[in-house]
Amino acid sequence: MIVKNYTIKINLAGGIVSAGDLLDILAIAESAGVENIRFGNRQQLFFTVLEVQVRQLVQELISADIIYELDADVHPNIISSYVAEDVFYHANWLREGVYKDILDLFDYRPQVKINLVDNNQAFFPFFTGNFNFIASDTSNYWYLYIRFPKTNIIYCWPSLVYSEDIPELSSVLEQTIFANKDKFYDQPAIDGALLHAMVSASGSFVVQPIAAALKLPDFKLPYYEGFNRYGNKLWLGIYRRDELYPVAFLKDLCNICLQTRVGQLYTTPWKSIVVKGIELADRDLWDTILCKYRINVRHASNELNWQVEDLCPYGLNLKNELVRKFNEEDVRTYRLCFAIKTQPKTGLFGSIVIRTQQDLVNGEAPQQELFEVLHTRDFNPNSKDFLSYKKDVSREELSQRLIELCNLYYELQTEAELPQNPVYESEQSLNAEEQELAKVYQCKNCFTVYDAQYGDAVNAIAAGTPFESITNYTCPTCEAPKEDFVEVNPLQLVKV
After folding, report:
1. What does the pLDDT average to over 64-89?
2. Distances from the Cα of 156 to the Cαs of 128, 196, 372, in angstroms?
């Protein structure tokens, strides 16, 4: 007899959940025989339940007014970078109240991915959503980058968006896109300006002109585990290698929160949880719970910088195998992060991506496992400009290829930091051929860059090929025509 499991998904808006609300969810899960829960890349909560328990569980969730999805992900969670504020960086104006005001104004359940992130942090991805709202330096105004559903085509909204307009604008955008799928949904080429015109005609929103292009911080993933001091308080980060959080442990954690007046817990895109606002005098209470459940909170940094698809045992198993290899070889991975993709169009975050070259049937490993290793051109995980490093890599040689790529990254970093020549040449001093190679062209749809110095491996264009000499060129990322590329000053590139 086959025993069927059902997956329950509960969105925790902005990755914020009160200790009392989480305790209610855990109690209902426990009554249905659930022993462990998981957190997802979009700060949501998952657990599985046996078929015989589903009806009673659903009734209890409805009675408790808890919104859930059963074996579905029609409504992605809205993610926010609030958890990072104060503990990893200090925001200029984007505080807790702003996040909560925006989240409270959502009076509908989005069917697209929405990100609310500060522009000064590197803990949260910037462009993994469909509507990516990124705080500007102007108080209460945001950049908006739209990644059209089922594509990697990115369009920069031509004006800044006011905080209180985000929910309504998101609603109008979603309705317009879904009503015009032939124009804006899973299409090889999309006119972002047309969407802007249609949305602007349907509503009135407070806007500000974009005074300066978005500038993203360098990627440095902070260590997000263990007890850490900030001000006169502590924060605690908890990561689980197997992604499983015992229900009993989390219940005790919530009870300590209530006992010590810590109001909220936070989930992260790294499938970890964070508790902020712990009093120094209360640390022993938290230590006792960690000891009771044997919770380790000091994993190696090269284990914490991985993204694996939600509910993907194959990817998790492969990650743990590769991490063991990295530890054996003592591999440095600072400023890098890795993603394992087994499905197309899963918006994972990574400067190095390991992609399966075959379909997984029921999540099982095929007889012959082959992988493609890719990396972003500048190793910035927020970029969508991927280069293929190696194809047809077997599982046995995968760790070695990754180690080689990590070493290449540090070689490039070292070369960039070393002074090459004490004499700085002006642009005018370059000869004609050098000036031609210095030109950079950027796709206005997804911001992929063509640099003649590197060429384009995807389109089999050799390094040193001037852009003007290429005929019938298409963007390697979004397949836009050559006409959609514009010449850009390399110092003013839009980095994504």
Report:
1. 96
2. 14, 10, 30
Nearest by Cα to 70 from 4, 3, 164, 154: 4
Sign of the torsion angle spanned by Cα atoms 482, 483, 484, 489: positive
- Report the residue count for the chain: 496
- Supply 363's token pair: 């999540």
Q: Where are the domains of the chain?
A: 89-209, 303-414, 431-492
Q: Which of 9-13, 373-377, 417-421 shows the lowest mean pLDDT across its residues?
A: 417-421
Q: What is the mean pLDDT of residues 295-316?
A: 95
CA 8, 13, 14, 17 torsion: positive or negative?
negative
Q: In what order do the strands lie in the sheet with 233-238?
A: 16-18, 264-267, 273-279, 233-238, 226-230
Q: What pTM value is reported for the model?
A: 0.84
Is residue 410 within 8 A of residue 352, CB to CB? The reply is: no
Q: Beta-strand (E) ranges in 41-104?
A: 45-50, 69-70, 79-80
Domain 303-414 matching CATH 3.90.380.10: the answer reads: no
User: 494 pLDDT band (50/70/90 cuts)?
Assistant: low
CA 306 – CA 299 distance, rounded (Å): 13
Q: Where are the alpha helices (DSSP H) in 260-349?
A: 283-292, 301-304, 313-329
CATH number (2.20.28.10, 3.90.960.10, 2.30.30.100, 3.30.360.10) of 431-492 reads 2.20.28.10
User: Torsion-angle region of residue 138: left (phi > 0), alpha (psi -120 to 50) or beta?
Assistant: beta
Among candidate residues 35, 43, 137, 120, the one with its CA nearest the CA of residue 86: 120
What confidence tens digit (pLDDT) does each residue in 390-416 have? 999 999 999 999 999 999 999 988 876
CA distance 22 to 16: 10
Query: Of 181, 307, 298, 187, nearest to 243 (Cα)?
Result: 307
Q: What is the mean pLDDT of residues 82-94?
A: 93
Residue-wise pLDDT tens digits, 117-176: 999 999 999 999 999 999 999 999 999 999 999 998 999 999 999 999 999 999 999 999
In whole angstroms, give the CA distance from residue 404 to residue 77.
36
- Report whether 149 contacts 177 (CB < 8 A): yes
Mean pLDDT of 106-121: 97
